Amino acid sequence: MNIGLIAHDNKKKLMQNLCIAYKNILSKHDIFATGTTGRLVEEVTNLSIQKYLAGHLGGQQQLGSQIAHNQIDMVIFLRDPLSQMQHEPDPSSVIRLCDIHNIPIATNLATAELLIKSLERGDLEWRNAL
Ligand SMILES: O=C(CO)COP(=O)(O)O
């Protein structure tokens, strides 16, 4: 499965901890991430991550483009609903593209954990048949 990761600045530590906790599952999949999120996760997990540009420099659009081509099977977008920075792109375009292609997307920790566990159970295998 191809997994997309992106986190607003205030959620990057949470993304690092999530990826540490589920490193063994994530390591069996191909991970794509916006630049800073990807670098920070790599630093703490040694996972190999294909990194886009930084989110505000076009990385979010690069991820969106892959989603638009239905090439991403699951997205974890840990967004900050309370204090999103001015330079941080709005998540709505990514969420919209996921909804167009029926791609599972988690925007908070609870759903992210459910999705990662579902990966391990093979619940998303139907995406291979697309
Ligand atoms: O901008 C982002 C979320 O809006 C994420 O991009 P970075 O991972 O490069 O910080």
Task: Write a structural description.
Its EC number is 4.2.3.3. Belongs to the methylglyoxal synthase family. Pfam families: MGS. With 130 residues, this protein is α/β, with parallel strands linked by helices. It has one domain (2-125): Methylglyoxal synthase-like domain (Rossmann fold). It is 45% helix and 15% strand. It is built from 6 helices and 5 strands. The chain has helices at residues 12-21, 23-26, 35-45, 59-68, 92-101, 109-121, and strands at 2-7, 30-33, 49-51, 74-78, 105-106. A 5-stranded parallel beta sheet has the order 3-2-1-4-5, sandwiched between helices. Helix 5 (92-101) links the parallel strand 4 (74-78) and strand 5. The radius of gyration is 13 Å and the shape is globular. The mean pLDDT is 95. Bound molecules: 1,3-dihydroxyacetonephosphate. 1,3-dihydroxyacetonephosphate (13P) binds next to helix 3 and helix 4.
Mean pLDDT across all amino acids:
95
Oligomerization: single chain
Instruction: Give the distinct bound molecules.
Output: 1,3-dihydroxyacetonephosphate
User: What percent of residues are in strands?
Assistant: 15-25%
Spatial sequence of strands, sheet with the most strands: 3-2-1-4-5
Unreliable stretches covering 5 or more consecutive residues = none
> Do you know the CATH topology?
Rossmann fold
- Report the helical percentage: 40-55%
CATH architecture: 3-Layer(aba) Sandwich
> What's the domain count?
1
Largest sheet: 5 strands, parallel
Which CATH top level class fits? Alpha Beta
Number of helices: 6
N- to C-terminal distance: 12 Å
Overall strand count: 5
Order of helices and strands: EHHEHEHEHEH
CATH superfamily: Methylglyoxal synthase-like domain
